[in-house]
Amino acid sequence: MKKRHNLLPSSLNGLRVFEASARHLSFTLAAEELNVTQSAVSRQIRQLEEQLGLPLFIRHHRALELSSQGKEIALLLTRQYSELNQTIRQLKAKETDTLRVQVAMSFAVRWLIPRLHSFKSLNPDVNIVLSSSMGHSNELLQLEEDDCDIAIYNVPEISKSANMPTFFRKEYLAPVYSELLTKTDEPISVDELIANYPRLHPTSDQCDWSEWLSRNDRTEQINKDGLTFNTLDMALTSCFAGQGVTITDLMLVVHELQQGYLKLPTEATIVTNSTWQYYYQTVTKGDNVTRFIDWMVQEEKKDWAALTHMAELHGWKIID
């Protein structure tokens, strides 16, 4: 019988060691990932090069560089290992009906968690594992196969690419306050709110206040006064306590606006954020992933309908 794959090494472990070394361009980091010694990695690579009859690395004094042959093999191995890992995880997910969702912290706390009972009522057999991230960075969209099934992030608008995440929605910014702050249920004007009450900044760079004031031709009112937080959820908690007025994405507080826990000033202007937007990315495929995304999109449509209804009722102007 003719032997198939006769050019492959007798042990495929060397290929796994090479793939890790090529990703890190470091035998030391590859050894840490594989839980072996650095000398074991170096020895495996030399044996693999001898078996293949090809130089895989160019060894410099303090650095590694892939050879042209090594680059081609590394690209193929990383892709094939990723596809195999993803297939195995999808098969395991079908067995356990587990859906892993990774999501930005404020979106998780303010929007997703309060609605999860709705998804669970429609899909009682799906077990959801929710994890969150404090950060807001395009780097978060470079996901590993083991991270999650779905990722939802609020990040700067990103350029189109082959693996581009799917656009979910824009942010809709406006100042909000609690009656605990004003000590009255009488309407408050924008000018009075901005001039007389402390500002709560939901981001360390204070970009949301700057964005809203600039879009309303109020650049002269941009300042760093007040309290600054590094998450929107902290700023909203302070706002609920009556400690000041904050800028927020209104789509995260539709219920609070409907119930009167938060208010907008009279003749408020709602502006779409010109930079930050929501995207979602699917890492695996399957019925649970599809159902979750469809449910999420429908919930967002309900909130948008509720927000536009309140805008018409109260005279809030939405500027795209």
Automatic annotation (TrEMBL):
It comes from the Bacteria. Residues 12-67 form the HTH lysR-type domain. The keyword DNA damage does not apply. GO terms for molecular function: DNA-binding transcription factor activity; sequence-specific DNA binding. Keywords: Coiled coil, DNA-binding, Transcription, Transcription regulation. Belongs to the LysR transcriptional regulatory family. This is LysR family transcriptional regulator. It comes from Photobacterium rosenbergii.
